[in-house]
Amino acid sequence: MNVIPLLCWEFLKTGLFSVGGGLATLPFLYDMASRHSWFTVAELTDMIAVSESTPGPIGVNMATYAGFSAAGIPGALAATLALVAPAIAVIVVISRFLDRFKNSRSVSDAFAGLRPAVTGLIAAAGFQVFSMSVLNMEAFRRTGDILAALSWIPLALFAALFILLMKTAWHPAAIIAIGAGAGIVLGL
Amino acid sequence: MNPQEKLARLLRLFAAFARIGLFTFGGGYAMLPMLQKEVVEKHGWATEEDVLDFYAVGQCTPGVIAVNTATFIGCRLQGIPGAIAATLGVITPSLVIITAIAAFLRNFASEAIVRHAFGGIRVAVAALVLQAVVKLWKTGVKDILGFLLFAAAFAAVALGNVSPVFVVAGAVAAGLAAGRTGLLQKLQARQAASAKAKQRTSEGAGAQETGSSQSSGAASSEGDGK
Predict the structure, then answer these.
(1) C-alpha–C-alpha distance, residues A123 and A126, integer Å
(2) What is the rounded CA–CA span in Å between residue A103 and residue A13?
(3) B:177-206 residues touching chain A, CB 8 A cutoff
(4) Tens digits of per-residue pLDDT, A99-156?
(5) How far apart are CA A35 and CA A176, in angstroms?
(6) How confident is the model over A61-72, as pLDDT tens digits?
(7) Are residues A96 and A180 in the same domain?
(8) Fewest Cβ atoms closer than 10 Å to its Cβ: which of A50, A118, B12, B205?
(9) What are phi and psi of A13, to 5 degrees?
C-alpha cells in the first residue's frame, strides 16, 4: 500500500498544529507512532538524538527522519514538504497585515492558553521517552511490582545527565555523546 | 526586473537560507546570529529590527520557528516565489544530512555497539526532554489557569490518548475565552498584588472550562477540585 498520501496528511496536521518551536512536533510524532506502524517509540527517541545533534531546525530534522523511516527517501521528502506547507500558506496571508497580527489581543490571548498546554503535551511525550528508556516497563508488566520497573543504572545516568544539563551550558550534542559513551561502557 | 534577474534573486535567497539551515544547530534562538549575518550584514535584505520582528511572528505562527522566519523574509522580499525559495533553502540541508544518517543507522542498527550506544542515548534524550519541559514551564505556566491547562493537556495525551490536534485547538479556545472574560485584568492584578491575584484566578479558571473543547472529563474534574 502506498503510504505517501497518509504521510502527507499526518505531517500537514503536524505543521498546522505544532506551535512553539523546538520539540513542539514531538507530541504529534508520538501520536503517529501509536496509530501507524511507521516507527516505534524507541526509534522516535533515537530520531530526537540525531535531530538535536545535526544541523538544521529540530522540527524539520524530525519530519525528515520520521518520513524516511516510514517510506524511504520519497517519505522523507513528502513528510518534510507537508510539514512546511501550512507555514507557507499562513505566513503569505499574515505578512499582508503584519502589524495588526503583532498587536492583536486575540493572538496574545490564544498564546496564554497555548503555552501551558504545549508544555503539557511535551511533558506527556517526555514521559513516554522516560518510561521507555529509563524504566523497565516489561518487568513491571511481568511482575506487577512497580519497584521491578526501576532499573538503577539508567536511573542514575538519567539523574547525572539532567543535573549536567541544568548546571552547565553544554550543547545537547555533548550530553548525547556522553549518553552514548555511557551506554557502551555500561552495556545498556 | 527581467525573468532572469528574478530567478537569480530567488537562487540567492535559496542559497542564503540553505547556509542558515546548514549552520543552525537545534533551531530556535540558535538561528538568529546566522540569520543576522546572512540577511542583514551580507545581503542587506532587511534591518536588524525587521529580523527580530520576523522572528517574533515566526514564533506565533504554526510550524517550525526557523522555517516560519525564513518563509516570512522570503515572502517580504519576493512574494510567494520568495517564500517558497527561502523555505526550500532552509529545509534542504536537513533533508540531505538526515536522510544520509537515517540510511546509515538503519544498516548498523543491529550491531551490538550501536545498540548499547543508543541505549545510553535514549536516557540522554529523556533528560533533554525534561530540561525542555522545565524551561517551557518557567515561561508558560505562571498561574492556576496555566497549571490547569498544563495538567489537562498532559492527562489528555498521556492517559486519554486524545490527539494533540484537539488539545492545541482546545487550548487556543481556552486562551481566547479566558482573555474575553478577564484574564488580562487578572494578570495585571497579579503584578499589582499577589494576594488579589489569587482570588481572581478562580475567575480565569472558570473561563477555561467554558472555552475548552478538549478533554472535558479532565477539565471538569479539575473544576470540582478547586
Answers:
(1) 5
(2) 27
(3) 178-180, 183-184
(4) 788 788 888 888 888 889 999 999 998 898 898 888 876 667 777 776 767 788 899 9
(5) 28
(6) 999 999 999 999
(7) no
(8) B12
(9) -60, -45
**Cβ contact, residue pair A49, B123, below 8 Å:** no
Min Cα separation B176/chain A (Å): 5
Asked if residue A142 and residue A129 are part of one domain, the reply reads no
Q: Are A49 and A62 in contact (CB under 8 A)?
A: no
Q: What are phi and psi of A39, to 5 degrees?
A: -160, 160
**Closest CA of chain A from B185, distance in Å:** 12
How many domains does chain A fold into?
2
Spatial separation of the C-alpha atoms in residues B211 and A114, rounded to whole Å? 13
Rounded to whole angstroms, the Cα distance separating A186 from A8 reads: 40
Domain hosting residue A44, numbered range: 4-133
In angstroms, the CA B4 to CA B207 distance is 56
| Contact (CB, 8 A) for B145 and B183 | yes
DSSP notation for B76-103: HHHHHHHHHHHHHHHHHHHHHHHHHHHH
**A56 SS3 class:** strand
Contacts of B117 in chain A (CB under 8 A): 180-181, 183-184
Which set of grid coordinates corresponds to residue B207?
473561563
Q: How large is the ipTM?
A: 0.87
Point out the residue among A21, A121, A184 whose CB comes nearest to the CB of B116: A184
Look at B120 and A182 and tell me if their CB atoms are within 8 Å.
yes
Q: Could you tell me which of A46, A128, A152, A139 has the C-alpha nearest to residue B122?
A: A46
Q: List CB contacts (< 8 A) between A86 and chain B.
A: 62-63
Q: Is the same domain home to A91 and A142?
A: no
Give the residue from A91, A107, A133 where a domain finishes: A133
Write out chain B residues lying below 8 Å of A178, CB-based.
120, 124
